[in-house]
Design goal:
Blueprint lengths: L2 H18 L32 E4 L6 E7 L8 E2 L6 E2 L7 H5 L5 E19 L2 E18 H9 L7 E26 L4 E27 L3 E13 L4 E4 L5 E5 L7 E13 L1 H5 L4 H7 L1 E15 L4 E5 L6 E5 L14 H15 L3 E2 L7 E4 L3 E11 L3 E11 L4 E14 L2 E8 H4 L5 E6 L6 E6 L17 E12 L4
Antiparallel strand pairs: 1-5, 1-24, 2-5, 2-24, 3-4, 5-6, 6-7, 7-8, 8-9, 8-12, 9-14, 9-15, 10-11, 12-13, 13-17, 13-18, 14-16, 18-19, 19-20, 20-21, 21-22, 22-23, 23-24
Length: 484
């Protein structure tokens, strides 16, 4: 396998494997946002306080996993073909049939979390939280032009020029120790919350293909590129060939390679004050509304120089020429099969991407956290029993931003049980809903189960081909103190 392709894959997959070992800390499903008994909703907004204090059951307080995409569901890349499915590269799959499903920007996000220790308790009107856990996320964004090149560029009768840019993949894993505080103001109509965080970095990778120009002729390709790789990991080192280009990336062991700080800010406000200035039935309606807003994961991690690498292509963007002929005939044993075609793409990209040590960068590197913005509007239909509302959540990634709009409701028929139901507009496409179940006796053990996408869509081989999102959350806590 070609060297550059191998190193890029190594760089991202090592981070991915690391993240998958972290069973993103204090995360919660959108479905649980309006559930007042749900303790982990403080991760959305530190001003959202649960009804009762809690102590997280050791190593089981909160486990969360989430995957989202706008394009990378399997039915966009694998097509029915009689007795055997065909990939998008097969000659029987037209360019239009494949490319009509591809967006201008195509992203995939993975979030994983595991809470090691968590506790929340009331002290008078104040509510305190202490959390210890790990966060990990992987983000990738690939433009339309990359897939257009991958499909059309394989045709020997279709010479073309492709300008591919803004392809980026990042992965981060770090530990987090957080201390949160919230309290009410203005006669309990306004609640303000803040959480400070000490961050310990384990691994961070950033692969950025700023530009790739491909002149794909019938038999000859001419390619130029502008790419960079930055990364930090325990014992991370780069070795180079005699000509100064990258040979291998190596990582040794597991440990802390960076540190930093972060914080969350949030507030909730009941519109009861506004309702007092309104006469008639409208006053009672306004009195039932609560608005909430928060910015979370504001901060940075500084990574040590000795465990970091900086790589980039030459500033002059070297141009190379080689012979690459691609075709598909559906024969898995053919040298131009899907696997071999991907191998050839890697060889071609290697010729254009001669990564070297970036002499303009040295020393420690610093990365910002992936900030999140949340807005909520809640309406209470039955006091302490039934409420519902709208939630907007936005993740700000380095290469793209992802926004989800969720309509959710919460129902608490008895003191020891609360259920939530939701629908997420962006990733569900009107074919799935979210469900959350929270068993909350005032003494004993509390159990929380939730998913924003509870109806997976499988093909005949039980593969989820059409799903664009899936998440699941599980948590066990022990109640503390009296209910508020």
């Amino acid at each position: 396998m070609n060297t550059i392709y191998k190193n890029i894959r190594f760089f991202l997959l090592v981070a991915g494997v690391f993240c998958s070992m972290l069973p993103a800390f204090a995360q919660t499903t959108n479905t649980g946002y309006f559930m007042k008994s749900q303790h982990s909703r403080t991760s959305f907004n530190p001003a959202l306080r649960p009804e009762q204090g809690y102590f997280g059951f050791p190593f089981l307080a909160n486990i969360y996993a989430d995957v989202k995409t706008n394009t990378f569901n399997l039915d966009h890349f694998i097509f029915p073909g009689g007795t055997q499915s065909k990939t998008f590269l097969h000659e029987d799959i037209s360019n239009d049939d494949f490319l009509k499903n591809i967006g201008e920007n195509n992203y995939a996000n993975i979030d994983l979390s595991y809470s090691l220790f968590s506790m929340g308790f009331y002290s008078g009107e104040s509510f305190w939280t202490i959390d210890l856990g790990v966060k990990a996320h992987i983000d990738a964004n690939v433009p339309y032009s990359f897939f257009e090149f991958g499909k059309k560029g394989f045709s020997a009768n279709n010479p073309s020029i492709y300008n591919i840019g803004n392809s980026r993949g990042t992965a981060t894993g770090y530990g987090e120790l957080g201390l949160g505080y919230s309290r009410p103001f203005l006669d309990n109509t306004l609640v303000v919350g803040v959480k400070g965080k000490l961050l310990l970095g384990f691994v961070d990778t950033d692969f950025y293909l700023k530009n790739l120009t491909v002149d794909a002729g019938k038999d000859v390709w001419t390619m130029s590129s502008h790419a960079m790789i930055e990364g930090s990991a325990p014992g991370l080192k780069a070795t180079y060939k005699d000509d100064g280009t990258l040979d291998e990336l190596e990582m040794d062991g597991f440990g802390i390679t960076g540190s930093g700080f972060g914080f969350d800010l949030g507030a909730t406000y009941k519109l009861s004050t506004l309702a007092e200035s309104i006469n008639g039935p409208l006053s009672d309606i306004v009195n039932r509304f609560t608005v909430s807003a928060a910015l979370t994961d504001i901060g940075f991690i500084s990574w040590s120089k000795k465990n970091s690498v900086y790589l980039a292509t030459d500033p002059m963007e070297q141009v190379v020429t080689g012979e690459y002929i691609f075709s598909t005939n559906g024969d898995e044993n053919d040298e131009n099969s899907f696997e071999n075609q991907i191998e050839k793409i890697g060889d071609a990209v290697e010729d254009a991407m001669e990564l070297r040590e970036d002499s303009e960068k040295s020393g420690d590197r610093s990365t910002s956290l992936r900030m999140k913005m949340n807005f909520g509007l809640e309406y209470e239909f039955l006091k302490d029993k039934l409420s519902g509302g709208l939630l907007s959540t936005t993740y700000f990634n380095k290469s793209h931003s992802v926004t989800e709009f969720t309509m959710a409701g919460a129902y608490k028929p008895v003191s020891w049980f609360e259920a939530g139901l939701s629908y997420s507009f962006v990733h569900s496409k009107f074919n799935t809903f979210g469900l959350a179940l929270n068993f909350v006796p005032s003494k004993g053990l509390n159990l929380f189960l939730a998913s924003d996408y509870i109806i997976p869509h499988w093909n005949s081989d039980y593969v989820p081909t059409t799903m664009k999102a899936y998440n699941v959350q599980f948590g066990l806590t022990i109640p503390l103190g009296q209910k508020h």
